[in-house]
Amino acid sequence: MEGVINHHMRQALTSVGGYDACVTEFLRITDQRLPSRVFKRLSPELAQQGQTTSGVPVILQLLGSDLEMMAANAHKAVQLGAPAIDINFGCPSKFVNRKMGGSILLREPERVHAIVAAVRKAVDAAIPVTAKMRLGYEDDMLALDNALAIEAAGATELTVHARTKIEGYTPPARWEALAPLREALIIPLIANGDIRSLDDYRRCVAASGCVDVMLGRGALNDPSLARQIKQYKPGDTIVPMDWCDITSLILVTSEQMEQEYLKKHVLMRIKQWLGMLRRDHQKGQQVFDEIRRMKILEDVKGVLRKGK
Ligand SMILES: Cc1cc2nc3c(=O)[nH]c(=O)nc-3n(C[C@H](O)[C@H](O)[C@H](O)COP(=O)(O)O)c2cc1C
Fold first, then answer.
1. CA-to-CA distance for 281 and 276, rounded, in angstroms?
2. Which residues, 6+ apart, have CB-to-CB distance to 229 below 8 Å?
3. 106 CA to centre of own chain
4. How many whole angstroms from 307 Cα to the centroid of ligand 1?
5. 1 CA distance to ligand 1 centroid (A)?
6. Strand pairing of 157-164 and 212-214?
7. Counting beta carbons within 10 angstroms of the beta carbon of residue 146, is it exposed (0 to 12), middle (13 to 18) or buried (19 or more)?
8. What percentage of the chain exceeds 90 in pLDDT?
9. What is the pTM of this model?
10. For a disulfide at 38, which of 34, 84, 217, 222, Cβ 3.0-4.6 Å?
11. Ligand 1 pocket, residue 38 CB under 6 Å
């Protein structure tokens, strides 16, 4: 997730367990063949067989509509070690949409098809090409057309954020709108949107018929959510990660980020994460109240250590 999850966060979350794969933030493709360093910055995991240290594959996500450049950059990403390519048809940003990238393309299923087909053709058949879309732009009238176009173009999986672009991030996600897509598709359909707890997961599966889900913000609200989902069997009691373990995870992640970023940037990331953790953790709210005005990373870490 652009601006929220980077390779350090992927490392932290996959170390907790439960993830089959993760996806990078999107890489916007315009009219250029991007240099290797851009791909490596986005996905430092390329240097380790395209996996996090815990062995979870990191799919590289491209966003754009120039067929030749999408194909060329997908090819380059795979040459550099990306284990799979994902294409973003979900981004709602006005800037991105004005440049014909992200969710605006869902108005034109033929164009969606052409983009996926171009990328599919550009990379080895053994490399999965996946896509991520919303239900539509203004409405969901073309949801099925887009999903079928993506499948016909050779995508191996489709993730759908169960909202239109106009619906933004306003809850609730409409999981039930995924059911007809799931019934029509042969490739796996992965449900996404508002899965913030094990109970949300259960309700999403029941409403959509999808077996697999993608976590967005829920991964940060509850760092053990993927593990809980993976372990879940009806009737079982699943124990979420406790605050002490979450604190240790944040502190380790902070140390790793400090080796690469300025402390002020690490401070911003840690505060952002703590801000998201307060949604589900009472202790998270207390800690956030204490650190929200702090300007020095060491002070925030001191609060975290004290609260363990
Ligand atoms: C800050 C932010 C950045 C995001 N960046 C991306 C991105 O780079 N690529 C992508 O496919 N989705 C991105 N998304 C969308 C999420 O992956 C997800 O589809 C959406 O948040 C709904 O799922 P959730 O309710 O589980 O968060 C982003 C969402 C947010 C809030």
1. 9
2. 18, 198, 201, 213
3. 19
4. 30
5. 5
6. unpaired
7. buried
8. 95
9. 0.96
10. 34
11. no
pLDDT tens-digit profile of 37-66? 999 999 999 999 999 999 999 999 999 999
Supply 281's token pair. 């953790």
Answer yes or no: is the C-beta of 135 below 6 A from any ligand 1 atom: no
Residue 183 and residue 210: Cα distance in Å, rounded? Answer: 9
Q: Is 232 helix (H, G, I), strand (E, B) or coil?
A: coil
Domains of the chain: 7-231 (3.20.20.70), 243-306 (1.20.225.30)
Contacts of 73 (CB under 8 A, 6+ apart): 27, 29, 33, 34, 62, 64
Residues 6+ apart with CB under 8 A from 284: 243, 246, 274, 277, 278
In this predicted model, what pLDDT tens digit does every residue of 3-19 receive, in sequence order?
Answer: 899 999 999 999 999 99
Residue 91 designated active-site: yes
93 close to ligand 1 (CB < 6 Angstrom): no
Which residue from 66, 59, 124, 111 is spatially nearest to 85, judged by alpha carbons? 59
Tens-place pLDDT, residues 254-277 = 999 999 999 999 999 999 999 999
Separation of CA 261 and ligand 1 centre (Å): 23
